[in-house]
Write a structure and sequence with these properties.
141 residues, alpha/beta
């Protein structure tokens, strides 16, 4: 069985590094994006099995400022592309959970986590979400 590919999209390098190390220690392949544009590009090109997505991103000044990305805009883009529309998204944010949790779940996120993240709970949700995506085993007589 091949390792699951998980994309972490967060503007915090500490979060990217911490989550990457935890996920790799549990046998996952990890991709990271520190901007909204990079998250969409990687989701489209690499087709991860799951995305951990922050809500807040600063303006993408490295690419001319352009679109002020946020996790909701990124989820909207992902849902419009054939390559990524069925990838489950887990929101991870330091933003106000009262303000964002219902909106994130209504937008299609499979789970919502507030930072600092409960690693054990996150790993359990990832395990369940990925298990739900596994195709049924075919039995041949």
């Amino acid at each position: 069985m091949k390792p699951s590919k998980i994309l972490i999209a967060d503007d915090s390098l500490i979060v990217l590094k911490t989550l990457s190390n935890q996920l790799r220690a549990h046998g996952h392949q990890v991709l990271t994006a520190d901007s909204g544009g990079e998250a969409v590009r990687l989701a489209r090109g690499e087709k991860p099995d799951l995305i951990l997505l922050d809500i807040s991103f600063p303006p993408d000044v490295g690419h001319g400022g352009g679109v002020p990305w946020d996790g909701f805009l990124i989820m909207d883009w992902l849902r419009r592309m054939d390559e990524s529309k069925s990838i489950p998204v887990i929101i991870i944010t330091g933003g106000d959970p009262i303000k964002y949790e219902h909106r994130a779940l209504a937008a299609g996120a499979v789970a919502f986590f507030h930072k600092p993240i409960d690693s054990a709970a996150l790993l359990e949700i990832i395990r369940k979400t990925l298990a739900d995506r596994e195709p049924e085993a075919c039995l041949f007589a």
